[in-house]
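From the methods appendix. Each design record in this collection lists the tokenized structure first, followed by the designed amino acid sequence. Records were kept in a plain field format so they could be parsed without special tools. The example shown here is representative of the layout used throughout.

RECORD:
FOLD TOKENS (135 positions):
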């Protein structure tokens, strides 16, 4: 059975989760290096888009520019699997430019690096609003 995260590790991961929207929504490409591993993956379940590697994540964030929603991360639960993999499940709210809101779930894998905790894999699974044909 895997050990639980120490309170310090859990707080560092929560700070990482708080740092993500500041970096991503503002296209702060330097700060994204403090969020993702160099080989990190950002996956968008609704569109099927996958951005593999920090440089591709940076370009995606930068290309969104002012179209990037204002994201808020909520209700994060951290778990350690028997093999030591550290996972997170968070909810998010995202405010669009027109003021509409959508929400969903983040499913993450975190790794401890020499520079602190980083996201190795992040998958966004939207909930609402539903698109035509979704139930």
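DESIGN:
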């Amino acid at each position: 059975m895997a050990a639980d995260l120490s309170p310090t590790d859990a707080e560092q991961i929560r700070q990482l989760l708080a740092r993500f929207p500041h970096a991503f929504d503002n296209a702060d490409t330097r700060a994204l290096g403090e969020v993702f591993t160099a080989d990190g993956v950002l996956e968008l379940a609704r569109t099927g888009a996958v951005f593999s590697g920090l440089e591709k994540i940076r370009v995606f964030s930068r290309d969104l520019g002012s179209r990037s929603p204002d994201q808020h991360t909520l209700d994060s639960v951290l778990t350690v699997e028997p093999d030591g993999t550290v996972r997170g499940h968070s909810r998010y709210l995202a405010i669009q430019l027109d003021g509409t809101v959508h929400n969903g779930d983040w499913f993450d894998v975190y790794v401890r690096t020499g520079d602190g905790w980083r996201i190795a894999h992040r998958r966004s699974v939207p909930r609402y609003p539903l698109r035509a044909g979704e139930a």
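APPENDIX NOTE: Strands lie at 36-44, 49-52, 70-80, 86-95, 101-113, 116-128.
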